[in-house]
Design a protein that fits this description.
With about 475 residues, the chain is of the alpha/beta class. The chain is built from 16 helices and 18 strands.
């Protein structure tokens, strides 16, 4: 692969594939976890882009390579950088701060230093690979300084930034000792995209208050004459791809197999999340178990399948959460299960997309109850897979997806009794009711897929006045 002249460069903390050790000890590649990768992959392919990111781990230098037709440029991190930039500032400071302080963020100066130097290295690599006037699209909270660093190196570029997680209100953001640097980092972009209008408004307000720039609605006016636009672009999924996977014969057969293995209960509840404290897994399992203990549900009729995808396992808060969930599931099954009938079927593992599609097909009630979530693509994937208009979605009001999926059974995840009644309503709802709701949600998801998302971001990016660089067609 040539090392120069890409018209579209994606900069993200992660590559779409992770370096892993296979069973026989040799290195291999596996799709990375999380929503970001799912969303950007199709855009990359359509534009013949180059993707700069970390392949996980602390391997020695890896050469650029192609995977599934994508040009990938691996950025290595040292152990100190993994601890400072990734586990530390990104996931010990920013992640909890941007998710409503669901956990307590920690502020450490050495973490910040590491964040700055990793951002600089990514910016330098993008500057090296981008063609004259190219578009560079920077992604997510791990890379918020890249836009400004990159603009200083390459003023000819058109730079977009997209934040996949919530952008917090000023009252929380201003706790950050480095709040001004982060805002200025983002202002290096021509367009800063958020999941919801509220995030864009929070950002503009902070820029006015903390950096002192003039703003009007969604525009920021910089002293050098440049303007930066902040706007919402709710992300989505490859809806048609999920639907056709769900319709396929092997997935149908696997869905049957799953239901049989579960003992053919009347209804299957399902949760699929990265094992993260923002996802509300503990409260949701408690709500379900109380319905059994209260006698509203019986383990002969209902089972809860919870898939928890291992995530950020070196970060303290995630270890604590894992122990808590392990204990809770053990206690619930010990107290309420019968032989061959656990109340909760708990899987701590990650699965290929086909298996996810089979689970979505097998589930009658999908339960998505984060305390705070940028969007939550699992909710949309479930809807996309329900091509027969059956199945109920119980969805947290605090997931970005709730803005679009209004016909879900919406819940406040802090309200256990409220969640219990929503779970029960969804369980008991008749066919007409679930169909009506699912049909409306399916319309929303199929009409606003990930291609439309990328398309609108790219179009807005090329329309920014005063921006340099050629437009890239999504
Ligand atoms: C979320 C974030 C992504 C992140 C993913 C997986 O979706 O928005 O930026 O890549 O989680 O988390 P990880 O820490 O494994 O990259």
């Amino acid at each position: 692969m040539s090392n120069v002249s890409a018209d579209l460069v994606i900069v993200a903390n992660r590559l779409p594939v992770d370096r892993v050790e296979q069973a026989d000890g040799t290195p291999g590649w596996r799709t990375s976890p999380g929503g970001l990768v799912t969303a950007i992959e199709p855009v990359m392919r359509a534009n013949d882009g180059t993707w700069i990111g970390w392949p996980g781990g602390t391997d020695a230098e890896l050469e650029p390579f192609e995977a599934d037709g994508m040009k990938l440029v691996p950025m290595t991190m040292t152990q100190a950088e993994v601890e400072g930039h990734y586990e530390g500032f990104s996931n010990g400071t920013l992640w909890p701060l941007y998710h409503d302080l669901v956990a307590k963020p920690e502020f450490h100066r050495e973490w910040w230093d590491s964040y700055v130097s990793v951002n600089r290295r990514f910016a330098e690599k993008a500057a090296e690979l981008a063609a004259e006037g190219a578009t560079v699209w920077v992604h997510d909270y791990q890379m918020q300084l890249v836009p400004q660093m990159l603009r200083e190196l390459r003023p000819d570029l058109r730079i977009g930034f997209y934040l996949h997680i919530p952008f917090p209100p000023a009252e929380l953001f201003q706790q950050l000792p480095w709040r001004r640097q982060l805002l200025e980092g983002l202002l290096g972009a021509d367009l800063v995209g958020f999941q919801l209008p509220g995030g864009a408004q929070n950002f503009v307000r902070l820029v006015r208050q903390r950096v002192g720039h003039k703003t009007h609605r969604d525009l920021v006016y910089l002293p050098d004459g440049r303007t930066v636009r902040a706007a919402a672009f709710p992300i989505s999924i490859d809806a048609a791809g999920f639907e056709s996977m769900a319709r396929s014969e092997p997935v149908a057969a696997r869905a049957e197999e799953i239901r049989t293995a579960l003992g053919n209960p009347r209804k299957v509840f399902l949760g699929i999340d990265r094992l993260d404290y923002t996802k509300g897994i503990y409260a949701r399992l408690r709500a379900f178990s109380e319905l059994i203990a209260d006698g509203h549900l019986d383990v002969e009729d209902a089972v809860f399948v919870q898939v928890a995808v291992p995530s950020r396992e070196q970060v303290e808060q995630y270890r604590i959460l894992r122990d808590e969930i392990d204990r809770l599931v053990g206690r619930i099954n010990g107290d309420l299960g019968r032989i061959g009938r656990p109340a909760i079927s708990y899987l701590h593992s990650s699965y290929p997309r086909e298996e996810m599609a089979a689970l979505y097909r097998a589930a009658d009630v999908m339960v998505v109850t984060p305390y705070r979530d940028g969007m939550n693509l699992v909710a949309k994937e479930y809807v996309a897979c329900r091509f027969e208009d059956t199945g109920a979605l119980v969805l947290s009001e605090f997931a970005g997806a709730a803005d679009e999926l209004r016909q879900a059974w919406l819940v406040n995840p802090y309200d256990i009794n409220g969640m219990k009644s929503a779970l029960l309503d969804a369980y008991r709802a008749d066919d007409r009711e679930t169909r009506r709701r699912m049909k409306a949600m399916r319309k929303t998801v199929t009409q606003n897929d990930v291609a439309a998302w990328a398309d609108s971001f790219m179009q807005e990016l090329s329309a920014i006045p005063g921006s340099h660089g050629k437009a890239v067609r999504p």
